[in-house]
Amino acid sequence: MAKGHAKPDPPGRTSGSVIDRLTGRLGKVTALIAATGTLAVAVLTQWERGSEQIAKLFPPAPCVVLAPAKFPAIVKLSEWDDVRVQLSGENNCPGELGLYVTYSRAESKNSSLFAIGSRHIELPTCSNYLVAESEPRCWNPKKPVVVGKGPWTYPVLLPRIERLADWQSGQKIFVDWALHNTDAPTKPAIALDTATIEIQSDILATGK
Description:
Helices cover 23% and strands 32% of the residues. The radius of gyration is 37 Å and the shape is elongated. The C terminus is likely disordered.
């Protein structure tokens, strides 16, 4: 028997082929995991985009909805302090809802005839409109106007008015108003608009 000759490995059983097979299988598993992960990320991304589009098409209802406000078209100066504007709307969120309305004078050709502002000028913070806007106590707030979800009403006084010059009955004043949440006074107003009110005089028609 000849010596010094190594017995060859059986076909298909070489160590190199085993390693190659293991490496190939690991590669396939890794590729499968990577592909699965990529697919999952793609599906999640598409889901998020779809959800965003749906949210844009069907936005959630705001917590506080205001019905069209009806300010009086004509007010006698002697009755100004007693006039109330009946605001109403719907609350779509739980909890106690508190509201207040701020006023400022809109610039117009008649804006020099009257000054308007908070009724509580005895309070230091209420004499400066820029400060008073975020101070509910300056504007006769009401809380709660409603508890929980449901309709609400809020009778609002007109602002303090002060004559700055002589005027004639029938002059119109332009009043900027804004509805705020008492629990979020520094956030944007729930609603805002400008009311046009004709002021008539029964006692002070001559400006005396």
